[in-house]
C-alpha cells in the first residue's frame, strides 16, 4: 500500500469509531478470554457495552426478548452463505467457526504504516488504524525520547486525539529519564534526570493523558519521580535501566508497577547479581511487558517469562513506523532505522530499534509457537494490560471496564481465524470497524 492508501484507511477507521452504535449480536463462536473457553457462544452488545453473554441459540432468543429486541431473522442462517444480516436496527454477525476474544490492548507501541505517534494528530490516526486492523482496539501511544519541548508538544497532541476518539488510552513516555548504558534506540543527547521541574512541565502539558512513564530509577531524582508520578495517577515503569536487584525493589516500593519489556534493555539474571527481573518476579504488584516476536526474546525465554510471571505478562509490540510495511529505511524519532527481514535496527550501530510486531501475531505465536493455552495467551493481550493501568474496572478513561467477555464490559470484540489467529472482524466500543 502507498502512504496515501494508509492514510485513507486511517480515515475509514476513524469514521467507523465516530459512527452510531446499533444493537449487535455475534453468535456461534468459540469464546476465549482469561477465564477459559466456551463453545457455541454468543454476545449481545448495546450502546458500546456487552449486555449479555451466553451459549446456544435458545438462550440467545431469550436474551433478545428480555432486551426488547427482535428475534433472529429467518434470513440469518449461521454457517450458511447468509453470514451477516441487519434487521430491525440490529446487526447479526455469524461467528460460526471463529474465535471470539476481547479486543487487544497494547500499552507500548510507537507507530505503524509509515507514521509515528510522535508526529501529530494525522499520524496518530493512520498509525492507530494499522494496529486496529490487527485487533488492537485500545492503545497507549508510546512517545520516544526527544527534547522536552517536543515531548510536551507531542503530549498535547495525544490529549487532543483522546478527546475525539475512544480507542486512544493516553501516552507512554519511554524516556527521557532512562540510562545511557541501556538507551537502545533512544537519542543519547536528549537523556536526562527526572528533575521535579521537568516532570512538572510534562505533567502539565499532558493534562491527564499520561498513563505510563518508563524510567531508570537509579538516575538522580529517580525514586522521587516514581513517587510523584504514582501520586499523579501515572503508572511508573522500570526499564531501559542499569538498576540492580535492590534498586529495583526500592523502585517498586516507591510506586513503580510495570517492568518495561522484560529481558530487553536491563541487566540480566546472574546468580550473584540478580538484577531487576527477580525483583519483579517476587513482587506480585508488578506487570511485566514482553515482546513476543521471536527476535527480541527467543522462544524458550518467552516460555520462561510466562512461568515466572503467571497472569502478570502483558504482551506489547514496541512497534515502530515500519509496522505493516515492507523492509527499507525508516525513522525512530530523529534516528535512522533500517528494517530487514521485518527486524528494525538503528542504521548507525545496529541496535534493535523497536519492532514491526502486531498483537494478533504476538498472541498467535504464544499459542502456536510457545504452546501456551489459548486463554493464557489471550489474557496477556487483554485483561493483564487492562489491569496494569487500572482499566479492568469502571474508570474515568474508558467508562466501562476492559479485558473480558462479560456483561458491563466494553464491547471491544475480535473474531479471529483459528488456523492463523488472524483478524476477521473488529468491534471497538460497540462499533464494527470497517477494515
Describe this structure in words.
This protein has 435 residues and is of the alpha/beta class. It is 29% helix and 27% strand. It is built from 12 helices and 22 strands. The strands form 4 sheets. Strands 1, 2, 3, 4, 5, 6, 20, 21 and 22 form a 9-stranded mixed β-sheet that branches. Strands 7-10-11-12-13-14-15-16 form an 8-stranded parallel β-sheet. The protein has a 3-stranded antiparallel β-sheet with strand order 17-18-19, with no helix packed on it. The protein is globular, with a radius of gyration of 21 Å. The relative contact order is 0.16. The model has no long low-confidence stretch (mean pLDDT 95). Belongs to the metallo-dependent hydrolases superfamily. NagA family. It comes from Bifidobacterium choladohabitans. GO terms for molecular function: N-acetylglucosamine-6-phosphate deacetylase activity. This is N-acetylglucosamine-6-phosphate deacetylase.
Amino acid at each position: 500500500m502507498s502512504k496515501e492508501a494508509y492514510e485513507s484507511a486511517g480515515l475509514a477507521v476513524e469514521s467507523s469509531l465516530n459512527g452510531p452504535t446499533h444493537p449487535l449480536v455475534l453468535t456461534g463462536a468459540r469464546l476465549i478470554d482469561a477465564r477459559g473457553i466456551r463453545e457455541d457462544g454468543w454476545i449481545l452488545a448495546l450502546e458500546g457495552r456487552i449486555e449479555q453473554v451466553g451459549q446456544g441459540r435458545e438462550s440467545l432468543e431469550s436474551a433478545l426478548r428480555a432486551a426488547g429486541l427482535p428475534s433472529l431473522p429467518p434470513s440469518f442462517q449461521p454457517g450458511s452463505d447468509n453470514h451477516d444480516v441487519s434487521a430491525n436496527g440490529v446487526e447479526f454477525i455469524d461467528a460460526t467457526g471463529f474465535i471470539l476474544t476481547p479486543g487487544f490492548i497494547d500499552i507500548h507501541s510507537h507507530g505503524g504504516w509509515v507514521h509515528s505517534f510522535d508526529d501529530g494528530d494525522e499520524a496518530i490516526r493512520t498509525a492507530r488504524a494499522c494496529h486496529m486492523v490487527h485487533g488492537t482496539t485500545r492503545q497507549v501511544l508510546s512517545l520516544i525520547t526527544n527534547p522536552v519541548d517536543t515531548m510536551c508538544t507531542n503530549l498535547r497532541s495525544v490529549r487532543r486525539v483522546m478527546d475525539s476518539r475512544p480507542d486512544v488510552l493516553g501516552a507512554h513516555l519511554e524516556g527521557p529519564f532512562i540510562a545511557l548504558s541501556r538507551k537502545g534506540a533512544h537519542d543519547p543527547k536528549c537523556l536526562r534526570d527526572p528533575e521535579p521541574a521537568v516532570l512538572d512541565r510534562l505533567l502539565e502539558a499532558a493534562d491527564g493523558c499520561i498513563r505510563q512513564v518508563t524510567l531508570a530509577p537509579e538516575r538522580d531524582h529517580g525514586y522521587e519521580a516514581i513517587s510523584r508520578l504514582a501520586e499523579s495517577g501515572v503508572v511508573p515503569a522500570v526499564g531501559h535501566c542499569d538498576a540492580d536487584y535492590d534498586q529495583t525493589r526500592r523502585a517498586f516500593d516507591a510506586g513503580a508497577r510495570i517492568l518495561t519489556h522484560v529481558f530487553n534493555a536491563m541487566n540480566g539474571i546472574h546468580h550473584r547479581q540478580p538484577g531487576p527481573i527477580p525483583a519483579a518476579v517476587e513482587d506480585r504488584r508488578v506487570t511485566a511487558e514482553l515482546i513476543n516476536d521471536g527476535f527480541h526474546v527467543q522462544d524458550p525465554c518467552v516460555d520462561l517469562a510466562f512461568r515466572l510471571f503467571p497472569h502478570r505478562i502483558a504482551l506489547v509490540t514496541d512497534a515502530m513506523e515500519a509496522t505493516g510495511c515492507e523492509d527499507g529505511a525508516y525513522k525512530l524519532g530523529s534516528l535512522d532505522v533500517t528494517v530487514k527481514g521485518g527486524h528494525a535496527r538503528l542504521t548507525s550501530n545496529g541496535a534493535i530499534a523497536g519492532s514491526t510486531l502486531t498483537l494478533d501475531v504476538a498472541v498467535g505465536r504464544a499459542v502456536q509457537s510457545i504452546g501456551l493455552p489459548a486463554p493464557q495467551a489471550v489474557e496477556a493481550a487483554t485483561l493483564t494490560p487492562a489491569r496494569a493501568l487500572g482499566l479492568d474496572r469502571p474508570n474515568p478513561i474508558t467508562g466501562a471496564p476492559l479485558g473480558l467477555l462479560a456483561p458491563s464490559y466494553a464491547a471491544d470484540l475480535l473474531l479471529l481465524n483459528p488456523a492463523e489467529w488472524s483478524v476477521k472482524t473488529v468491534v471497538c466500543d460497540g462499533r464494527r470497524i470497517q477494515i
